[in-house]
């Protein structure tokens, strides 16, 4: 899949009937992306960066001002109607199938994607088992909790064997168990079916395990694009040390007082970023002596995609490596 020079602007609006005026925004600003077949590709970026606007153009739901979108040899700007045959899209909004039961919603989706009745039924029960949806099978989507409904919508996105899955925040509102089943299902589609997946997510830490490459979007522009490993090189070798104190940190201990200077403090938690050698000394200091009694928990971690994401903070020019 290739995107070239994609631009989409939302026009300015004058204030009207209690609605505030909005300025014109260039939500996608000359975006170029090339996603390989069979790749799980992540789109990261802060709120309002343009991620949803970008994927809605890729799915034929929103017409770009200019630019090209090519999916499996099809020009989706010229033929947006072809998108529904090539890809399954899970948007942020709730589904149009809200009145149906979970099993009927998934089965209907499979039928709409061309499965015969028997195949659709089989595929529905397989996906429901895979995602742990069995106990909700006969409940209407609109009577489920937010996380449960989201999981059912993921189920619907997975049937019909579309070669491209476009998933916008698939795990929103889900508990850890449900999230895990979604990541596993995505990984399985890639491994067993060679499915290409475009994933928008804020759940950077969890998604990292399934992502082959990542683009970071900021104010409509791609400011970085690389493998998770390549992006992590941006933050260097620094490791992250998290210290959680039971109550007040023992500042009378000189080593603790020294760490306080560099710590980012959130409630009882101190977060420090430092070279591995310094981190080892710091861990020895807080776990060896009197400080240990005051410590509730600690973790030492190598850089994650989340660290990259935070470190980029809009200063990522020149990091794009396709
Ligand atoms: N229908 C619309 N009309 C006008 N402006 C819009 C519209 N939809 C989005 N925008 C603006 O376009 C920009 C990009 O929005 P978009 O929803 O694509 O961001 P996002 O990266 O998906 O954010 P989030 O992480 O919060 O979902 C934002 O500045 C947003 O305010």
Automatic annotation (TrEMBL):
- Classify the protein's membrane topology as the record does: Peripheral membrane protein
Q: Where is this gene product found?
A: Cell membrane
For whether the record's keyword set contains Nucleotide-binding, the answer is yes
CC annotations in GO: plasma membrane
**ABC transporter domain mapped to chain residues:** 7-244
Which Pfam family would be a valid example here? ABC_tran
Q: Name one GO biological process term.
A: response to antibiotic
Q: Which UniProt keywords apply?
A: Antibiotic resistance, ATP-binding, Nucleotide-binding, Transport
UniProt xrefs under SUPFAM superfamilies: P-loop containing nucleoside triphosphate hydrolases
Q: Name one GO molecular function term.
A: ATP binding
The name this protein goes by in its record:
ABC transporter ATP-binding protein
Which InterPro entries is this protein grouped with? Answer: AAA+_ATPase (IPR003593), ABC_transporter-like_ATP-bd (IPR003439), ABC_transporter-like_CS (IPR017871), ABC_transporter_ATP-binding (IPR050763), P-loop_NTPase (IPR027417)
Database matches in CDD domains:
ABC_subfamily_A
